[in-house]
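ok trying again, last paste got cut off:
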Amino acid sequence: MPPDEDQHSEVLDWQAGVENALAHLTCVLVARRTRTTPERVTWQQYDVLEMLRLRGPMTPSALSDSLSVSRPTMSKALRVLKDQDLVEQAALGTDRREQTTSLTAAGLEFLDRAAECRRDNARIAESVLTPDEQAVFAELCGKVAEAIHAAGQPAPISS
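nice, full thing came through this time. structure:
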């Protein structure tokens, strides 16, 4: 059921600009994904799972390079995902030090639930947007995503 125009958050005026609109949409989407995928997978871990889904088994170093994260950061992410039985690792060839990482059945099932949540979100968006609005929304989302991607990662906040 689509929300009434008067039901938007009084704490966050999401109609007051791009930053608030992005923040509000992000919060809503993350909350919905968390309900359908309660494993408490971080964004970074989710990216690892998606990369494995898209490219198949990969070495930790290839995953690090593909996702632009350090090797220690990738090792930590993979350790958590292995503990949750979402990925598995096996020796690659005769050198047992080199591992390949792949999705488990539980990892594939997790990604299936996340995809169903995305499809449900798309159906909801389609139900409140005209076909012309849908085309504009898709175009604008793509344009903003490409610009954010091209801008690169922000510098980490030092503690």
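cool. The first strand starts at residue 87 and ends at 92. Residues 22 and 86 are 30 Å apart (CA to CA).
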